[in-house]
Every structure is written in C-alpha cells, then in structure tokens.
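Subject: Re: docking follow-up (flavin mononucleotide)

Dear J.,

Thanks for your patience while I sorted out the input files. As discussed at Tuesday's group meeting, I've set up the holo structure prediction with flavin mononucleotide included as the bound ligand rather than trying to dock it afterwards. The sequence and the ligand SMILES I used are pasted below, so you can double-check that they match what you have on your end before we go further.
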Amino acid sequence: MPDLFSPFTLKGVTLRNRIGMSPMTMYRSTDGKLDDFHLMYLGARAAGGFGLVFPEQVAIAPEGRTGVHCAGIWADAQIEGHARVTSMIRTMGGVAGIQLGHTGRNGSELKPWEGGLQLSPDHRDGWQTVGPSAIPYGAPKRPYPVHALTVEEIKAIHQQYADAARRAADAGYEWLEMHYAHGYLGASFFSPLANQRTDQYGGSLKNRARFHLEALDAVRAVWPEHLPLTMRLGSDDFHPQGTQFEESVTAIGWMKEHGLDLADVSFGGNTDDMVGNPWNDANGWVARAGRIKREVGIPVTTSWNLGVPQNADAAIRSGDIDVVLLGRPALANPHWPVWAARELGHDSPFDLVPEDWGWWLKNFRGHAPSIGWPAVAGPPDADEVVEFEADLAADTTVGDAVPVPAGARHD
Ligand SMILES: Cc1cc2nc3c(=O)[nH]c(=O)nc-3n(C[C@H](O)[C@H](O)[C@H](O)COP(=O)(O)O)c2cc1C
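The structure tokens for the complex came back this morning:
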C-alpha cells in the first residue's frame, strides 16, 4: 500500500513522493514573466522535498490573467523565465508542473490585498472579460459586462491553449494541468450559472463539457504523449442551479477518452452563494476524488486542508487519492516534506533535501532542535485529525469553520 513517501509514476514521469505544491498565484510578474523571485520561491520548495512543484496559474493570453501582475506563457519571450525555473526544480529533484489557465469573466482584478475588486475594461490595468454568456459574476466584486464568446473565439482559445502547451514543453515542464475550476473560463462553461448558451456549447451536459473535450484534444495534439495531462476541475458549485458533482463524474469519464491522465478535484467557484463552505473541508474532497477514481478509473489528486502530515498520509493510504497537493502549508514551510517525514517517523527525512545538505545533516547533529529544521512537534491536536472514508456521506468539516473574509479568493 503506497504512503505519502512512495514514488508515483504517471505516464513517463515519476514523482519521488506523493507531495505536490499546489499552484498559487503570486502577482509578482512583469509582462507575464517569471523572474528571480519565482526561481527562489519554486527552487526552495523543490529543495525542500516536494515531489511535484507548480508555479501559479499561468495565463494562455494577456486577458486570461487575474490581474496585470500575473504570470503568462502566451509569448515565446516568456519561455526563458519558465526554463530557468524548470531547470532549478529538476536539479533539486522535483518535477516541474505548469497550470495553464484563462480567468474568463473573473479576470481584470486588483491584487487581493489591494481589495481584489474588478477593474473596468477602460481602466489602464483592466480589460474586457469574456465568458460563455454575457452574465457577470456579479456585484460587488465583479460587476462589469462580460463578452459572450463566439464559436470562432472559442476555437481561438483552444488554439491559445495548444500554443501555450507547446511553449510549456519547450520550457521543460513535465506535467501540464489545465485550470478548469474556481470560476475561471473552463469552470464557467461547465456551470449553468454562467453558461446559458443555446448552441453546441450550452444546455445539455454533453454540450457544457464540449469546451473541455475540445481543449483536451487541442492540447493533447501538441503536448508529448509520454507526459501527464491533467485538469483541475470545478466539480461542484454547491448551488442547486450550478454544476452538480454527479455530472462531473460522468464528464470526467468522457475527458479520460480525450486524453486526461489525472483529475485534480476542486470546486466550481461560479458563485459566492454556496451551500456550506467547501473551503474548510478536507475529508469531503478526498472522498469525492476517491469516488471519481473508482467510478471513472483514473488517478486523482486534490488539495484543501491536507497540511497535517498524518491526514495527508492517511489520504494516500486510504487509496482514495494518488497525490496530495498543498497550498498554504507549502507557502508557510518550504520544507514541509521534511517536517512531515519527521512527524511520521520516516527513516531518513534528510534524504529529501539535496544530497550534500543531507550528508551534513545526517552526520552532524542535524536532528538537534537547535539546528533550526522544523522540529518534531508531536501529534496534531485531536480535532485536526481526519478520518478518511471512501464515502461521500462522510462530508464533514475539519476543526472549526473558518470564516472567509470579504473579498477572499481562492485562485
Ligand atoms: C495565495 C494563493 C494563491 C492561489 N492561486 C491558485 C492558482 O493560481 N491556481 C489554483 O488552481 N489554485 C490556487 N490557489 C488554491 C490552491 O492551489 C489550493 O488549492 C488551496 O489553497 C487549497 O489548498 P491548501 O488547503 O493546502 O491551502 C491559491 C491559493 C492561495 C493560498
């Protein structure tokens, strides 16, 4: 039975463990480029033992960014910055993944800590947002009119995805995830809340999934066959009129036929008006992903509140998910895998860092608390430990429900 530290092979790529750093938007790019900041930040997580390292959502077009400071790969001039990052991640023993995205009707925004509000199309740093239908996400956050894409424009976006995938391969990425969750363009095509088209891209489930299937075809045609192609999916809007989880299970089966190698299961994000708060959940996400894995027969991953090492390990051991993705824990601790290995009693936690560091640490008091490595802290509080059950009925929250601040977003 695999555990958190077992290697994981998908297509021709093997991760040294089941721990991935989830994509996180940094708002630190100029002209969409990755620079020294990204090299430092992403290289540090690879050196800290993460098996899979994602930069943030990387835009396939300028108007596919969240805001003007977001990263992109819509031009060949952006390849070099990405190539520096992938080379560093590889040198540090990790696999570099890229998350390609288009924010659709949820772009043209200020940074979250500057208020996160949408900018009007005529603002210097704003643009005309696009979506399946002319339905804005809604005031107060995103009040501006949305341009409903024509069929010709939809095909052009598929081509932008394919061009971006070709550049990603040139830059040395070995794992490609398409971001079709969290209210962005792909998620909005799937959701009746955002998609009220009457043509072949709207209405029935097959029509609402057409955008995904065509995009997978376009990317698979250029992305090397031996490299994983995955998708972060907005599997549920938690709203009676939105995307329903059952529909997602069916549609992921079709996506598998169109070249999807792994499903990264997340929320739809097409409304703030959700029943419950999936952002505070952990075992529900693992159970949902596990159901997709069993019913569709496809490897899966998920994120959301898996930062307690015992929980992350249990999620892998349960067989429900194949890889754990960590967002905030990876921000907080670049050596989270080393900490987790020590917490879980791994034989040789310092094997996770570069060989020379490991040699010093194994042989010269690396285990002493004074060394400054994350100390072995003992088991987590009882209310943080989650019992994972391969059962959607076990959909409870972890610990106390954390109120979500106004303007908060989960890119
Ligand atoms: C600062 C920040 C930026 C994020 N940006 C992205 C992003 O670019 N793409 C994405 O799919 N999710 C994004 N997310 C969501 C994370 O990838 C992850 O799914 C989420 O934080 C849950 O994992 P966690 O509980 O381990 O933090 C972001 C989260 C944070 C905290």
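A couple of observations from a first look. The chain has eleven helices and 13 strands. Residues 193 and 242 are 5 Å apart (CA to CA).

Let me know if you'd like me to rerun anything.

Best regards,
T.
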